[in-house]
Amino acid sequence: MSLWALIPIKGFERGKSRLSGVLAPLERAQLTRDLFEHVVRVLRASPAIEEIAIVSDSVEVRQHAERMGMGMVALSDADDSQGLADVVDDALRQLERRGATSVMICMSDLPDLTVQDIASVARQLDESDVVLVPDLLQEGTNVIALKPATCLPSCLGHEDSLHRHHARARDIGLTVSVQLSSGIAFDIDRPGDLERLRRR
Fold first, then answer.
1. CATH no. for residue 104?
2. Which pLDDT does position 75 carry in this prediction?
3. How far is residue 198's CA from residue 200's CA, in Å, rounded to a whole number?
4. Number of structural domains the chain divides into
5. Domain span at 54
6. 38: Cβ–Cβ under 8 A, 6 or more apart, which residues?
7. Phi-psi region of 173 (alpha: psi -120 to 50; beta: other; left: phi over 0)
8. pLDDT higher at 81 or 120
9. Where are the alpha helices (DSSP H) in the chain?
10. What does the pLDDT read at residue 77?
11. Which helix or strand (DSSP H or E) is residue 141 part of?
12. Over 60: is that where the pLDDT of 76 sits?
């Protein structure tokens, strides 16, 4: 099984808009970059991951990824009207053409993510077609692993994506595992998340 990681990410300057009331634009951009780099470091250190790709319509992010030595999934005809789910589905098709037999989609804002978290999801993917790892509220999907890479149309970016993914996978006839992980569940979306991060 050739397991790739895919990180969808907006431009650093457009990230974390929900924190605009507590962080200046440059601070939000730096936070977005720092979180992204942490996720990349963890994925690079994970023996289960064969390749890492990002999907972004940001020139700055592309250049940053190139400096980090990462693969880049180019968006063809991307525009602001294209939602996250469509972007991810396009990227998964491109990765499958490049030889990825399975893909772990990982959000870019997971400060507690560890190599052990990635290994646990990869092991579960050996037993399931789809592995879903929710956020703290168990509504969003912070990591989703798929085998094969294009087996499940994405619901990322939609409200209650965890349950949407689960229902869609069940309707298709895929085997699904929902895995709880404190390292994956904590993401930085709202001021309360930032405050929790700062208290450490």
1. 3.90.550.10
2. 56
3. 5
4. 1
5. 3-198
6. 110, 111, 113
7. left
8. 120
9. 25-44, 59-67, 84-97, 115-125, 161-172, 182-185, 191-198
10. 45
11. strand 141-146
12. no
